[in-house]
Amino acid sequence: MQAVQINSHGGPEVLEVVDIARPEPGPGEVLCRVLAVSVNHLDLWVRRGMPGFHVPFPRILGCDGTGEIVAVGPGVVTAGVGQKVLLEPGFNANLDSVEVKRGEDYLAPDYGLRGEHCDGFDAEYVVLPERFVTPLPPGLDPVETAATPLVFLTAWGMLMERARVRAGETVLVLAAGSGVGSAAIQIAKAEGATVIATAGCDEKLQIGLDLGADHVVDHCPDGWSKEVKRLTQGRGVDLVVEHVGPATWSESMRCLARNGRLVTCGGTTGPKVEVILPHLFIKNLAVMGSTMGPRSSFPLILERLAAGIYRPVLNQIMPMSQVAEAHRILEDRRVVGKIVLIPGQ
């Protein structure tokens, strides 16, 4: 079967499309034909190498996608051949941990991501434990849905679990054209918030409006936080959804109202930012980190996708054989929305 592997860290040239043996399901496992898999910044970080994080080679990339069950192992109870499913990005080995039992699987010490902590979904077939596939509601397009698991789960974790967004609040979402940004706009709107979205070009600003943002702001000019303050009559926003990092951090902090909170899940422009302590404590601000979200949220996310409340922002569909070009496009920021790869092509 076709699979995408890396045998060393580096640029897109280290991505190899190889032919390997098709796996077979064991007890409690299902074999899925991968229908589509999306490309995420996580794939770029694993490919490049991350300080302090060891990746055993070869490693198959790809952290989220969709598939069709083609075989089941002994002891499989609910999954059936022919069923179309979401391939969950996260996994736990210890199902008896305190975190898993209270529904916070993503906070457990052994939580891992496909394509990072083990082989991922950039292949024609994958084997997963039955519990880590979620059935797709009827009518959902598997190719479009492949663009949603990681980004919607991350945005859900930020807004719903960590920051506890409430109806009537004003939420600032950074980078409307990104996967997490586009998901966060839709989640915040569905919860009854007023949304201000930022982007760095007209095309991405329009994406924000199309997804339901009430206002959009260009975050490239110096002092763009003044426009956010103007839009909020000088008050500022209740919540900032950050994932850009150093390039936007200082202005994002200036946008917060008193008693406001900022939640971040990463930094695509770098790992280090500055916090001005008097600004933090005088305004009674909260800065929160967030990583992923509970797998129990997937059924509701998929239900809202099927109902049209949420929708993926799909940039283009490419054959998996062009994975290196897909990485280059994402790395060069030449993409609005998600790139989805089709295995076997």
Description:
It is a single chain. This protein is α/β, with parallel strands linked by helices and 345 residues long. The chain folds into 2 domains: 2-148 and 312-342, Quinone Oxidoreductase, Chain A, domain 1, CATH 3.90.180.10; 152-289, Medium-chain alcohol dehydrogenases, catalytic domain (Quinone Oxidoreductase, Chain A, domain 1, Alpha-Beta Complex), CATH 3.90.180. Helix content is 26%, strand content 26%. It is built from 11 helices and 18 strands. It has helices at residues 41-48, 98-101, 142-145, 149-162, 179-190, 202-210, 225-231, 249-254, 277-282, 298-306, 323-331, and strands spanning 2-6, 15-19, 29-39, 59-60, 65-72, 84-87, 90-91, 112-113, 125-129, 133-135, 170-173, 194-199, 215-218, 237-242, 256-264, 286-289, 314-319, 338-342. The strands form 4 sheets. Strands 3, 5, 6, 9, 10, 17 and 18 form a 7-stranded mixed beta sheet that branches. Strand 15 (256-264), helix 9 and strand 16 form a beta-alpha-beta unit. Helix 4 (149-162) packs across helix 5 (179-190). The longest helix is centred in the middle third of the chain and has 14 residues, at 149-162. The protein is globular. The N and C termini lie close together (11 Å).
Key terms for this structure?
345 residues, alpha/beta, Quinone Oxidoreductase, Chain A, domain 1, 7-stranded mixed beta sheet, 6-stranded parallel beta sheet, 26% helix
